[in-house]
Amino acid sequence: MSVTPRRRLHLAAHFPGVNNTTVWSDPRSGSQIDFASFTHLARTAERGRFDFFFLAEGLRLRELKGRVHDLDVAGRPESLTVLSALAAVTRRLGLAGTVNTTFNEPYELARRLATLDHLSEGRAAWNVVTTSDAFTGENFRRGGFLDRADRYKRAAEFVRLSRELWDSWSPDAVAADQEAGVFVRHGGIGAVEHHGEHFTVTGRFTVPRSPQGRPVIIQAGDSDEGREFAAATADVVFSRHSTLEAGRAFQTDVKRRLARHGRRPHQLKIMPGVTYALGDTEEDAAERAAEIRRQQVGPRTAIAFLEQVWGRDMSAHDPEGPLPDVEPDLSGEVSQGRVPLADRAATAAAWRALAEEKGLTIRELVIEVTGRQTFVGTPESVARQMIAHVEAGAADGFVLVPHLTPGGLDEFVDRVVPLLQERGAFRSEYGGETLHDHLELT
Fold it and tell me: How many other CB atoms are found less than 10 A from the CB of residue 380?
């Protein structure tokens, strides 16, 4: 590890628990709702000089065959409330929350995000997501759902309006009168007049301009509409393309779109979600990775994944046995609250071909297609792999998704981060105060 990298990478920490990533059976697995769990992971990430801490969020408990899916998180507190509390126990770490544009309103959400940015002194980020399903919509007054094109149009207008609100206070619009202990207004607080397809807002924003001007915008959509939305709007893309070739193709496609929105490549960071398994030797790491995969995909989880693709009850089949000779029910739906598969027939055909080629059982098949760790090896080889990934143009950094709550990041910070720092591939100290600074967006 003697060659100095040309590019420094970025790192973020994802609080685990969504989908089947977390190994619940491990005795070290802790609470998903105890504030101590959030504090531990956030402080570990800050000790590692990570760019930000990332919270996912769902607006409805997912169901399998009409019942709450008991292998998933059964409770998840509201993201911005948790992040506001974490602002008091961290100093430099960015704080990113997932908040939905389909079932929120811009003025109210812009206030909450601007408040978090003030409380954290410029460390707030918003992961912009949409919802397309009526199942989630049943939890809200207007119910229903939006077509794909409409939900992205609403999201784009939502972000534009939020930025209008954040920018309506000029940098010198408020001065602190230290003696009186009050804020003295002296011009520069503009009125917002927005009349769009989805929103109409007339008035003045109540929150002063935040230390970094506005929160960082994160986006995770992968459709053509999602990629264009990211190129026009986002500062960070939370990508699912974690392999070298897929990551390089994704980054090339999204960043080539930036120019038509008047943006430059450094103004958008691509950070795929990744997992890792470490060992003292390559063999140890491979064995550990295989064990983690088996823990993540137990027998019931394997059947649940099969049912999501096949669209029918598959509980009568042995997860340790072969894939049954049953065709998918393309009109059936046993799983609700998950992102629907684009082509279940094609997915089922690909799974069957893979199972036949490798002689896989149902559980082995699901492990093969869903449970793979991104980086496996000794700390030295994982550091090399990450650097090579960024050098090859497959990513600007990574969002680490550990398999344990809350201590799953500890080993990476203790064993891999120092090697990245020694190599000059990652910061040894924070160079700025805000999340914009950490991400080098300006």
Answer: 12
